[in-house]
Amino acid sequence: MVQYTLKESPSVILTVEGKDSTKARDKAMDQLVELMDAGELDIELSEGFGPKQFIEVKEPEAVADSDEDAIVQAVQVLSSLVTLKLKVQELRVEALKVRAQVDILFTDEPISEDEIASIKEGFKVLKTFAQANLRYQEAKFQAQQARAVLDQALKSPET
Fold first, then answer.
1. Is 33's pLDDT higher than 60?
2. What angle do the packed helices 66-102 and 113-154 form, to 10 degrees?
3. Which of 25, 34, 89, 158 has the fewest Cβ atoms within 10 angstroms?
4. Same domain, residue pair 75 and 145
5. What domain count does the chain have?
6. How far is the C-alpha of 74 from the C-alpha of 144, rounded, in Å?
7. Alpha carbon distance 159, 150 (integer Å)
8. What is the DSSP string of 100-139?
C-alpha cells in the first residue's frame, strides 16, 4: 500500500495498492477526481496538476493517539465548513434573484418564452443553493462539536 497527499490539502490521504509508481499515482489521481466530482472534496488545484505532484506519505501506518485523531478530524470538519460557507454565500445572491423571478409565475401578467427559459435555468441555481445550504447547516452542527474539541486541545495545561 502506498499513500499520497496534496500540497494544497495535506489532510487528504489517498491510499492505493502497490508501491509508488506511475500506475499507482494514476490510480490516486482517479480517486482524487472521483472525490472532487462527487463533491466530497472541494479544493482548488493548480492548473496542470498531475499525478507527479502527489506527495508520498512515507510514514508507516502508526496508531495515532485518539486525541490527535480527534484534533485532525476537528480541523477537517472546520475546513469543510469554511468551504461550504463560501459556496453558500456565493450561491445565495443568485438564488435570491431567481426566487424573485418565481413570483412572476403567480401573477396574471403574461410571461415571455425568454422569461420562462430564464426561470427554468434559475431552478438549477435554486436547487444547487438549497443542497449546498443543507450541507452547510449539517457541517455547522458538526463544526460546533469540532470547535469544542479544539477548545479543549488549546487549553493551557495550567488551567
1. yes
2. 160
3. 158
4. yes
5. 2
6. 9
7. 15
8. HHHGGGGSSS---HHHHHHHHHHHHHHHHHHHHHHHHHHH
Same domain, 74 and 147: yes
70 and 21 together in one domain: no
Q: Is 2 helix (H, G, I), strand (E, B) or coil?
A: strand
Q: Cβ(83)–Cβ(42) under 8 Å?
A: yes
Per mean pLDDT, which range of 60-64, 119-123, 143-147 is the poorest?
A: 60-64
Q: How many angstroms separate the CA atoms of 21 and 51, rounded? A: 10
The grid coordinates of residue 154 equal 488549546
Q: Which domain holds residue 45?
A: 2-57
Give the residue ranges of DSSP H helices in 6-65: 22-37
Give the 3-state secondary structure of residue 23.
helix
Whole-prediction pTM? 0.50
Residue 38 and residue 108 in one domain = no
Q: Report yes or no on 139 lying in a domain.
A: yes
Residues 73 and 36 in one domain: no
For residue 38, what is the DSSP state? Answer: T
